[in-house]
C-alpha cells in the first residue's frame, strides 16, 4: 500500500498584502490538490531573495503585469512530498521525498529554449512567487518532473538558498568562461548571491576572487574565499575603484566581472575592470526605469574583445550540481533563520542594504 500523509485543509502563507510597499501578512489559505503530474510539497523552509523584494515592490519595470494583492511570494522552497497527483509516480518521486522548488517552478520541456537547456527562458514557464503561488507558505504544488531532489546530508535550511542564489551564481561563473587561476570580480560580494559566488569560484572552480562591497561586509567576503576585498565606499569615484582592481590584478584587469547587486552603477563600473577578452556577467536586476550599461562602448569592446552575457537562473542539471557542492561542504551559506512573521522586517533590511548573506524562513 502506498504511503499516505495527513494533509490539512488550510495552511499558513505569507502574502504581499499591499504590493508596491514593503508589507507582508500571514494568512490561512486553502491547501490545493495536486493535479495530473503534480506533487503537493509540505514546505519547511524558504530562502528570501532580492527578486522577491522587486516583485513585492512592483519595481521591475520589465515585468508584464503588476503584482496582485494576496500574491504568495518566494522561490527557494524546501520540503517533503505530501501527496501525489495522478501519474506523478512516473517521474520517479514518492511521498516523503525531500525536494526543492525554484524560481522557475515549471517548464514545458518541449519548446526550443527547454530543448537547448535554457530553462530560465522557457516560452511557457511559471515563475514561483509571481502569478504562481510561491514558497512563503507551508504547502505548494510543483511538477513531479521538475522539483529538485535534495541531498540527504544537506539540511533544508542550507539547501534553500542553493535553489536560486546558488544555482544562479554557479551558472554565472560557468558562463563567464573564466579559467582556473584567473581573476574574477564579484560586485555585491557580501550579499546573498555574492558570498556564495565567492565560495563557488574560489573553492569549487579554482578561480581567484576579488569581492567589492561595503566595508561592513569585508569579513564575510574574505571568509568566503576572496583573496582581496575592495571597499566600494572608500573610493571617491569609479576611476579610483578601477585603478585599485587593476593594481590587484597586475595591471590587466579581471577575466570576468559578475554583477550580483541590483545596481546600475555597478554595471557601469564593471566594463572598466575587465582584461582583454573579459566577460561581464549580468545577474542582479536593477529596479526602476530600464537603464543601459553606461560604459558598454562598442569601440572599447571591439578593441579589447570584451563580452557581455547574462544569467536568469541555472537549469535543472546545474541545480543538482550546486546542491552537491553544498552537500560536500564546498559552499556553505551564511544565513540566519526567521519566522514567517518577520518577513517584512527582512525586506526592510534588504532595502537599506544592511542584510549580509541570506535569510531563510522557518515555515513551521
Average pLDDT level = 96
Number of helices: 11
Unreliable residue stretches = none
Shape: globular
The assigned structural class equals alpha/beta
Order of helices and strands: EEEHEEEEHEEEHHEHEHEHEHEHEHEHE
- Total E-strand runs: 18
Largest sheet: 7 strands, mixed
Strand content: 25-35%
Alpha-carbon distance between the termini? 29 Å
Q: What percent of the residues sit in helical stretches (DSSP H or I)? A: 25-40%
The gyration radius over C-alpha positions equals: 20 Å
Descriptive labels:
single chain; 364 residues; 26% strand; seven-stranded mixed sheet; alpha/beta; 18 strands; six-stranded parallel sheet; 11 helices
Q: Would you write up a description of this structure?
A:
The model has no long low-confidence stretch (mean pLDDT 96). The strands form four sheets. Strands 3, 5, 6, 9, 10, 17 and 18 form a seven-stranded mixed sheet that branches. α4 packs across α5 (192-204). The chain is α/β, with parallel strands linked by helices. α11 links the parallel β17 (335-339) and β18 (358-362). It is built from eleven helices and 18 strands. Helices cover 25% and strands 26% of the residues.
